């Protein structure tokens, strides 16, 4: 009986260790996925002080996408702003 109790305690310890390791591994994977998801979220940049600008419902990526008079939707951390393009200046 004593030997069986020792065997049972060893298995219990091994099982506990395996569960703990699996939980830690899955937590690391979840943290990596959360970081990757945050990096792909355009609004996460807004929180860091940048703005997300849309023109005609699509993200503004180049001045080639806008014309004078277009309405821009500017999304910032605590709200959004509509602005009308009055001037376009190309760099370089």
What does this structure look like?
By secondary structure, this protein is α+β, with helices and mostly antiparallel strands. It has two domains: 40 residues; 44 residues, no CATH class. Helices cover 49% and strands 20% of the residues. The protein is built from two helices and four strands. Strand 3 and strand 4 form a beta hairpin. The longest helix is centred in the first third of the chain and has 39 residues.
Tell me the strand order in the biggest sheet: 2-1-3-4
Order of helices and strands: HHEEEE
What is the structural class? alpha+beta
What separation lies between the terminal Cα atoms? 85 Å
- What percent of residues adopt helix (DSSP H or I)? 40-55%
The number of strands is 4
- What is the CA-atom radius of gyration, in angstroms? 27 Å
| Mean pLDDT over the full residue set | 92
Count of runs of 4 or more consecutive helical residues: 2
Shape: rod-shaped
* Unreliable segments of 5+ consecutive residues: none
- The count of domains is 2
Largest sheet: 4 strands, antiparallel
Q: Which percent range describes the beta-strand content?
A: 15-25%
């Amino acid at each position: 009986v004593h030997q069986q109790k020792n065997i049972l305690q060893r298995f219990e310890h091994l099982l506990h260790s395996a569960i703990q390791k699996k939980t830690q591994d899955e937590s690391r994977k979840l943290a990596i996925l959360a970081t990757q998801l945050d990096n792909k979220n355009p609004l996460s940049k807004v929180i860091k002080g940048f703005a997300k600008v849309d023109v005609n419902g699509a993200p503004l990526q180049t001045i080639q996408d806008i014309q004078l008079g277009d309405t821009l939707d500017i999304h910032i951390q605590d709200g959004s702003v509509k602005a009308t393009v009055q001037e376009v200046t190309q760099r370089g």
